[in-house]
Amino acid sequence: MYQIYPRSFADSNGDGIGDLGGVLDHLDHLEHLGVDAVWLSPFYRSPMADFGYDVSDFCDVDPLFGDLADFDRIVTEAHARGLRVIIDWVPNHSSDQHPWFVDARSGRDAAKRDWYVWRDPAPDGGPPNNWIRAWSTEPAWTFDEASGQYYLHCWLPQQPDLNWANPEVVAAMHDTLRFWLDRGVDGVRMDVVHLIGKDPALPDDDPDLAVLSHVPLNHRPETHALLRDLRVLFDSYDGDRVALGEIYLLDTAQVATYYGTADELHLNFNFPPMFAKWDAADWRAQIETTYAQLDPIEAWPTWVLSNHDNWRHRTRYGGVEARARAAAVLLLTLRGTPFLFAGEELALEDAYVEPDRAVDPGGRDGCRAPIPWDSSPEHGWATVDPWLPWPPDPETRNVATQLADPRSTFHLYRRLLAERRASRALQTGALHLFDVPEGVIGYHREIGSHGTGPEPVTASKRTVLINFTGQSVGLDTALAAGTVIISTHPEHEGKPFQGRLAADEAVVLSAPPNRAGS
Ligand code: GLC
């Protein structure tokens, strides 16, 4: 799945802000790259306090991005190319400008007062509990002078939390989902959906843990009950419609619970690996933990290196392109669904954003820099000066330049995606880590032959080796034999593996399948 942050992807009307027309203009890029699905970050009507994650109308497109007809065209055109369309759905909060909250705020007796979370002040007049909002040390509560109560917002004061304990809210939010599923979307990425169920007593967070924010601490049975109801809604639709949770919890064991017993979400983001260092031992531990938690419950994993909320992985890994390329091999060969963030196929780094150009309240501008499409001064945008500065080296790290260079990171992603599409072993095969020298990770992906029906599966095996170090490493070829079908060093492709990885090299080998019983 390929994530598009619409503001940053491509601009079709020359205002320096990406839009749905820009997405439409570049669907060919996605088809050529070879992804299966596109996930669009929010394009809803919004005052943009959190750049669209503060929604003032869950069922319309903000004029900045276009209109519903543009959205419908994306769905039609994407489907015509065999691409699925996933949209972001923001269930935990609305904008403070949403008519629901405008009503709720109008007084204690307002019809929609209870659609949000209101509480009287603590005895000392302060907030009702010690919850901290995201990105600050400020309370997750704002006092409303007119009514003398506080309202809850796990994010900005402009993002009041909806009260999912109220069945009217559940019904209204289900309606917003149906609106998009009826329009033909193939699924939904549910923004911080682990937050929707809350302990009705709203107790204090453990003061030792509540140093940052309440967001990674909210892990509640109420949420699971709400997710089971959402799954029933999804299951009432025909076709494959995916429910994907953004579960912002920092423990994979907790994340695993949001699959339920195959009756909650189909897929969940698992962020702990994203925060791992570029280090073989750290990554091996993340891989082992993920499968140890998910395999026993037959839950399908997801893998992600970059998104619109965090430094791009190349930036996190010290700006070293070779590491970013090796990481792409890891991402696209692990067992599970990989998520790509637009621009990582160009090995983009975060932009340096001068303090006077910073706009995001969460400090995330760098990873949201515009995508450079070509080497002209405007890089395919209608202005040299879009809403955020360019990422480093846009003269070379742009789509047109990399398309023309078979050694580029774009082509590495393209080869990996094509290989993944062609290989049952990489799609669904079991993953077995094997012992390799320090600083390296090695695993086999393997599928046995089975079936005699119309689609019998032939046994196949791939071996993946990732060198996390800046030194060349020798390996025992008995464990890692075969032809190099993909390498971050393309000159090694098409040759037998010689038992040595170059610095930061990652390879995929086509290995002879094991004989039964061997
Ligand atoms: C999620 C989004 C992030 C947003 C937040 C509040 O974490 O990915 O961009 O700011 O939720 O909606």
Total helical segments: 14
Structural class: alpha/beta
First and last CA, distance = 36 Å
- Rounded to an integer in angstroms, the radius of gyration calculated over CA atoms is 24 Å
Bound molecules: alpha-D-glucopyranose
Helix content: 10-25%
Query: Residue-averaged pLDDT, rounded?
Result: 96
Bin the strand percentage.
15-25%
According to DSSP, the number of beta strands is 20
* General shape: globular
Low-confidence stretches: none
What characterizes the major β-sheet? 8 strands, parallel
Question: Strand order, biggest sheet?
Answer: 11-10-9-5-2-1-13-12
Verbal overview:
The protein has helices at residues 6-9, 20-25, 27-33, 68-80, 99-104, 167-182, 221-235, 252-256, 280-294, 313-316, 321-333, 399-403, 409-422, 424-428, and strands at 2-4, 37-40, 44-45, 57-61, 84-89, 118-119, 141-144, 149-152, 187-190, 242-245, 267-268, 302-304, 337-341, 430-434, 440-447, 460-467, 473-474, 483-487, 500-501, 506-511. The strands form 5 sheets. An 8-stranded parallel sheet has the order 11-10-9-5-2-1-13-12. Helices cover 25% and strands 16% of the residues. The chain is globular. The protein is built from 14 helices and 20 strands. It has 518 residues and is α/β, with parallel strands linked by helices. Helix 11 (321-333) runs parallel beside helix 13 (409-422). A hairpin with a 5-residue loop joins strand 14 and strand 15. The protein binds alpha-D-glucopyranose. Residues 50, 53, 90, 155, 191-192, 246, 248, 308-309, 362 line the site of alpha-D-glucopyranose.
